[in-house]
Amino acid sequence: MENLILFFFLIFSVVIHEYSHGLAAYYNGDDTAYLMGRLTLNPVAHLDPIGSIIMPLFLALTVGVPFGYAKPVPINPLRFRDYQKGIMITAAAGCTANFLAGFVFALVSGLTKGLVSQVFELASFINFILCFFNLVPIPPLDGSRLVAVLLPHRIGEIFDKIERYGLFIIYALVFAGGFRFLVPFCSSLVNHFSSLVHLKF
């Protein structure tokens, strides 16, 4: 039952991540996600069979913590009113949404006890992981969009060229433990924010 609840929180977390990308793009002049029916919080529009269902269920049953991803929201940056500003805001929007969700879940964890507290603690952890994992500057992760737009054009083109291999690089680093540093960092954030309400109540 606990894993199913965490699976629900994971779906919620990846959906708000992609929805936030689409919403940010919309307010910067690109309505592509809206026209394709992706500017919605309906999970059906965002779920990827492998990344949103198979992988999270497998990880939940094997390591106890579900993790996954949703289908990227389609964005056409050429439609942004301000290209550079639009890229940066849209790229940061998903991670910002996950950080805020992680913050709120950590507070709820600090205000509750027992199993409920543990579930919200893990939900917070999942959101912080999604936030900072996506900030890693490897295409197609959000961090690469933020870095590419700030780099000289020639170096930015290198990011575009390696994007076709990006997922292979990311999977290789994941299985090699290259992102292991995120676990203690995100755990410390959960503990820090939950302790804020522990101190007051």
Topology:
Layout: H1 2-27, H2 32-35, H3 49-62, H4 83-111, H5 114-134, H6 142-150, H7 153-162, H8 166-175, H9 182-200
Helix pairs in contact: 1-3, 1-4, 1-5, 4-5, 4-6, 4-9, 5-9, 6-7
User: What separation lies between the terminal Cα atoms?
Assistant: 29 Å
- Which geometry do the CA atoms define? globular
Strand proportion, as a percent range, falls in under 5%
Mean pLDDT: 86
Question: What is the share of helical residues?
Answer: over 70%
Number of DSSP helices?
9
**Domains (count):** 1
Radius of gyration: 17 Å
Question: Biggest sheet, in brief?
Answer: none
State the total count of DSSP E strands.
0
The helix-strand sequence is HHHHHHHHH
Structural class: mainly alpha
Structure report:
The protein is mainly alpha-helical and 201 residues long. It has one domain (2-136, 179-200). It contains nine helices and no strands. It has helices at residues 2-27, 32-35, 49-62, 83-111, 114-134, 142-150, 153-162, 166-175, 182-200. Helix 4 runs antiparallel to helix 6 (142-150) and helix 4 packs across helix 9 (182-200). The two termini are 29 Å apart. The model has no long low-confidence stretch (mean pLDDT 86).
